[in-house]
Amino acid sequence: MAHGGNVIAELTTDHREVDALFTKIEEQPLGNPRRRELTDELTAELIRHSVAEEQYLYPAVRAHVEGGEELADKEIGDHAKVEHLLKDLEGLSAEDANFDNLVAKLKFEVADHVRDEEGRLFPMLTAACTPEMLEELGDKVRRAKQTAPTRPHPSAPSAPPANKLLAPGAGLVDRVRDLLSGRSH
Predict the structure, then answer these.
(1) What is d(CA 120, CA 115) in angstroms, rounded to the nearest whole number?
(2) How do the residues of the chain divide into helix, strand and coil, expressed in percent and rounded to 5?
(3) CA pair distance 69, 123, nearest whole angstrom
(4) Residue 120, C-beta contacts closer than 8 angstroms, at least 6 positions apart
(5) What is the pTM assigned to this prediction?
(6) Alpha-carbon distance 19 to 156, whole Å?
(7) What is the DSSP string of 80-106?
(8) What is Dmax (Cα atoms) for the chain?
(9) What are phi and psi of 151, to 5 degrees?
(10) Fewest beta carbons less than 10 Å away: which of 70, 82, 137, 154?
């Protein structure tokens, strides 16, 4: 899918890509190793997306949207649930009895989060920010995803400035691990 544009367009494109990955996982036969490979790809996409949102989207929501503190805190809480599910999935093979149950829980949590962002947060942000601000946020989010981690780190900080300082380092370590393990993204 084409990336670019303002922060809403960028993150909505991410959401559609995540939906497509869940569909690809579900299309594979139960226990098929391809389910694991697709789940690794999904994990990397979700982590990059979450890190970028936590670095740039939620601070903008806090600064510009009425009630933004509570809204951002709720979204970060959603991310924490997803990241813990990803961590639980990380070491499981597609043949493991818990694998499909965790993927189903993950899909539910992600879908709920996406509905909330697209139905509530994005319209509120659009109303509160200028088109130029939204474009600039889109650029920042794209840059953040390029250096973000690709694996779950549930104990990592989710608020600036610590997340902006530590995420690129964790991203580099994850990319080296991905390269050495043959996990490509």
Answers:
(1) 8
(2) 75, 0, 25
(3) 16
(4) 71
(5) 0.80
(6) 26
(7) HHHHHHHHHHHT--TTSTTHHHHHHHH
(8) 49
(9) -130, 155
(10) 70
- Mind listing the pLDDT tens digit of every residue in the chain (185 residues)? 667 799 999 999 999 999 999 999 999 999 999 999 999 999 999 999 999 999 999 999 999 999 999 999 999 999 999 999 999 999 899 999 999 999 999 999 999 999 999 999 999 999 999 999 999 999 999 999 988 877 665 555 555 555 445 544 454 344 444 444 454 55
Letter for the amino acid at 151?
R
What residue type is assigned to position 42 of the chain? L
Cβ-contact 169, 149 below 8 angstroms: no
Structure-block tokens of residue 170: 């964790």
